[in-house]
Design brief:
Elements lengths: L3 H11 L2 E7 L5 E6 L7 H18 L5 E4 L3 H17 L5 E9 L5 E5 L7 E5 L7 H13 L3 E10 L10 H9 L2 E7 H7 L5 H13 L8
Parallel strand pairs: 3-4, 3-6, 6-7, 7-8
Antiparallel strand pairs: 1-2, 4-5
Length: 218
């Protein structure tokens, strides 16, 4: 069943969503952690692709290819493309980048579909914290062809503020002009926990400190 609750259960079952005391790359102490590197079986990647594909279809976005930034985005883009074809009859190409370009064999930094001028591209990522990888992906794609990145799809929106008071995803949307979609948000995770659960309170406290400002006029 494709639902937010079932996705949270899937994440915890795979060990991709855990609770405890962690430190993010930004140095923030967080009571929960999302690690898509914990998906490691055929079932995991097949089901994960189904959730991403469902999110893509629900968005209504129209595009020509899916891009998965190295390294975690590679598997995510491939799994999403496979599920789009298998479950929705949508057959679109995908591609990804190497961290370092090859100077032998087929060469270059792109593997799979090679984008061309006028293409509409969507980026498939895991979790965006500061947005650095997304900005780097946009620069890479623009250096290859005159493409338009129309949307970004992630598994979890942490709803944390970026460089200002707004969320990183909102900042990316405004700065880069792309639509941003997530399968779930941290609020969905909070709502999935039973009333009185200590984990619920800790995440709420974390959001009080690092959560993004919500614009009520939007």
């Amino acid at each position: 069943m494709i639902s937010k609750h079932s996705f949270i259960e899937f994440m915890t079952g795979a060990g991709a969503l855990t609770f405890g005391d962690f430190t993010t790359k930004s140095g923030r102490k967080t009571p929960y952690f999302v690690n898509t590197g914990c998906y490691k079986t055929g079932m995991h990647i097949s089901v994960l692709g189904d959730y991403y594909a469902h999110c893509v279809m629900e968005s209504g976005e129209r595009f020509d290819a899916l891009f998965g930034p190295a390294y975690k985005g590679i598997t995510l883009a491939a799994a999403t493309a496979g599920s789009l074809y298998r479950n929705h009859g949508v057959n679109l190409p995908y591609f990804f980048n190497r961290k370092e370009a090859k100077d032998h064999g087929e060469g270059g930094s792109i593997i799979g579909y090679f984008p061309k001028d006028g293409d509409r591209i969507v980026i498939i990522e895991d979790v965006v914290t500061a947005g650095t990888a997304v900005r780097e992906s946009l620069q890479l794609l623009k250096s290859i062809a005159d493409v338009t990145v129309t949307a970004l799809f992630v598994s979890v929106d942490r709803m944390e503020r970026g460089t200002g008071g707004r969320s990183t995803l909102d900042e990316l949307k405004d700065e880069l002009g792309i639509n941003v979609y997530s399968i779930i948000t941290v609020r969905d995770i909070i709502d999935s926990l039973p009333k009185g659960d200590e984990r619920k309170e800790k995440i709420e406290q974390y959001l009080e400190r690092y959560g993004a400002v919500v614009d009520c006029n939007v």
